[in-house]
Amino acid sequence: MISLLKKTAMQYSFDCFALDSSSTDDALKVVTLAWGHIEGTILYLFSNHKKGSYNQISNLGWIVIVMGAEVATEFDNSNVLCINKLEELLVTICHLNRKAVGNNVVTVGYIMKPSREEDFAKRGALPISPTPNGLIFLPLTFGLPLLSQLKHVDMVLHKATDEIVSVELSDSAESSSKITYTTGMQELQRYLESHSDFFVIDPINKIYPLLDRLKIQEILLGLEDINAGGNHTIRGPHFLKVNDFNEPDLILGLSEAKLSLPSIVKPQIACGVADAHSMAIVFRVEDFKDLRVPLPAVVQEYVNHSSTLFKIYVLGEKVFYAVKKSTPNVDILVQLSEMNGLGPLLFDSLKSLPTSSEDPSADSNHFDLALVTDAANWLARKLDLTIFGFDVVVQEGTGDHVIVDVNYLPSFKEVPNDICIPAFWDAIKMKFESRQGK
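User: That's the sequence. What structure does it adopt?
Assistant: Structure tokens below.
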């Protein structure tokens, strides 16, 4: 228990230490030496099997939380609280913080995979004490009854793609793909369906287009609306959906889609399943035969872009970008292919993306932030999303800005924390306030 508490304290920036002595005087000395003068309340966690000085400790003005006690009537002090499991501790702390601050604070319950939560929390993005703009963040766990946690929150922030079990793509443009979530996420969905007034940033169904690379490509065709009169053009890449790599008219289809080789081949399912990031760069038509990329797939234009990728982060009304090293130009890729026996280059885009050794700055002077910001605002309206990201490359020669990927709730870790995290909080608060005003 102590090791888990220390890990939790480090993740959420608590001060935490273990008291070896059950003596009230000794406990007070230890805390005084460690923290000095404290303005606020000290929380002391007991395990119920350690019978003893609950009331003595609580008489110091500390709040005592007893773990493993089923009822509070065992204790005759209002400063003694009871929890059954350690997982209830954060809910309890959140409730106490909200009680101390008052009704002006907004509690955000969030759901994401542990590694993502740890990354966000360690950077101070998910504090359980109030942010400057009045937010408290509470991790929701499926290890506890969801209803008992939701009563403590005002809204839910989710990374629903972390909870996907399977995706069954729809063959029709009119119908949605069938997405199966974990049992816990299904419970949340049922709750949201029966509580239509409960606020979610962003509603789960709004992320569905981001799960389907074909739908995203089709949405990006609408970028033509913002390209009038500018020096540069922003667009999606040319693309073609492929159901079978052995289709007899594949060559004709590539030509009609304005695709030349090499091209990049991606699964149509964009995230949430094991093979969503298994891709290939194909140099010859014969390379499509027996290609080990999940079907259906999307063949996408490969853009020469000076090995430079611009990661765009949309946080409410604010847009940030970071420059990263990317895949090399075609001439370098051909050399890699020759080393591979002229075969396709297979890779997992999350792990082994072939990158250039060049400094990712060659085309950064041609990056049109105003144009990209217009596209970000257009996408925010089109997708009806608050927090999302997309990747842009600048095509050599034409200067076209090409959006090659769109994703929901990115980590935005390439942007300094002191810039992006306040923007993250502001985006959430502004969305909540806009909903309240309707």
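The CA atoms of residues 283 and 334 lie 8 Å apart.
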